[in-house]
TrEMBL record:
Keyword Ubl conjugation: no
Stored Pfam families: RNase_HII
Catalysed reaction equations from the record: Endonucleolytic cleavage to 5'-phosphomonoester
Protein localization: Cytoplasm
Function (record text): Endonuclease that specifically degrades the RNA of RNA-DNA hybrids.
GO biological process: DNA replication, removal of RNA primer; mismatch repair
Entry's EC annotation: 3.1.26.4
Protein name: Ribonuclease HII
Keyword Phosphoprotein: no
Keyword terms: Cytoplasm, Endonuclease, Hydrolase, Manganese, Metal-binding, Nuclease
Family of this protein: Belongs to the RNase HII family.
Domain of life the protein comes from: Bacteria
């Protein structure tokens, strides 16, 4: 059972999606839910089907006190590394909220402190708190929609299905067609090849 609040009213949950991908942005969401918000479907986005996430997204957007979603794209990821890009995406999502939170709940165990607002890192928080679960759903659905859109430009990588993650199919396409402008150049795109000098 997800908890509504950690210990403060006006808490924002924040989470990111796409950290382990080879292509596309890392996407973060921040959301403040009403104190009395209830939804039996709401859970960690990884535990929900795509159809259920798509049902929840407009409900969360409508019911939220405030929410924001932000992409940090591959060029910036390559420049500052994926961990810093994840923090940056969460900070930008918090920056864009029209209603500022009193406290921030962060999924995971690391976060770069946000100016003048205290935070708490919650390991597996998307399975414990509604606001983090809601942020995980918004981050995932917005990123998936973006990957489906760029799939049309480069269908051979099948981003509509793999969302840029390092599946066997995605790696085979990289071997065959090379990298696109959407790939993260700082990531190891293909496993190292072992050769024997005999």
């Amino acid at each position: 059972m997800l908890k509504t609040l950690y210990k403060y009213p006006n808490e924002a949950g924040t989470d990111e999606a796409g950290r382990g991908c080879l292509a596309g942005p890392v996407t973060a969401a921040a959301i403040i839910l009403p104190d009395d918000f209830k939804n039996t479907l709401l859970n960690d986005s990884k535990q929900l089907s795509e159809a259920k996430r798509d049902i929840l997204r407009p409900i969360l957007e409508k019911e939220a006190v405030s929410f924001s979603v932000c992409h940090v794209f591959q060029d910036e990821i390559d420049e500052i590394n994926i961990l810093n890009a994840s923090f940056l995406a969460m900070h930008r999502a918090l920056d864009d909220m029209h209603h500022k939170p009193d406290f921030i709940l962060v999924d995971g165990n690391r976060f770069k402190p946000y100016p003048s607002i205290s935070h708490e890192c919650i390991i597996k928080g998307d399975g414990k708190f509604m606001s983090i679960a809601a942020a995980s759903i918004l981050a995932k659905t917005y990123r998936d929609a973006y990957m489906a859109a760029i799939h049309e430009e480069f269908p051979m990588y099948n981003w509509k299905k793999n969302k840029g993650y390092p599946t066997k199919e995605h790696r085979e396409a990289i071997k065959k067609y090379g990298l696109t402008k959407y790939h993260r150049k700082s990531f190891r795109q293909l496993p190292e090849q072992l050769t024997l000098d005999i």
